[in-house]
Amino acid sequence: MVDTTGCGDAFRAGLIFGLFSGATTVEAILVGLKFGALKAQTRGSHCNGFCDSQTDG
């Protein structure tokens, strides 16, 4: 873990993205968790450059 700034925002963005993409609630939560975890790996409040290989599966 590098920096937790913005992890909650990333989680919420992933959750909303998942729900609007037709995922079940549990699937959307998992997307949110992945987004939050990816954000924790970078310093600062932004994590630009997520790619599909990081968020799939």
Write a structural description.
The structure is a single chain. By secondary structure, this protein is an all-alpha fold. The chain has a domain of 39 residues. Helices cover 60% and strands 0% of the residues. It has three helices and no strands. Helix 1 packs antiparallel against helix 2. The radius of gyration is 11 Å and the shape is elongated. It starts with 6 loop residues before the first helix and ends with a helix. The mean pLDDT is 84.
Task: Supply the helix-strand structural class.
Answer: mainly alpha
Helix content: 55-70%
- Straight-line N-to-C gap: 21 Å
What is the chain-wise order of helices and strands?
HHH
Most strands sheet: none
Rounded Rg: 11 Å
Total count of helical runs of at least 4 residues: 3
| Number of strand elements | 0
**Tertiary shape:** elongated
On the 0 to 100 scale, the average pLDDT is 84
Residue windows where pLDDT falls under 50 for at least 5 positions = none
Strand content: under 5%
Write the SSE topology.
Elements: H1 7-20, H2 25-40, H3 52-55
Defining key terms:
57 residues, 3 helices, mainly alpha, 60% helix
Short account of what is shown:
The protein is mostly helical. The protein contains three helices and no strands.
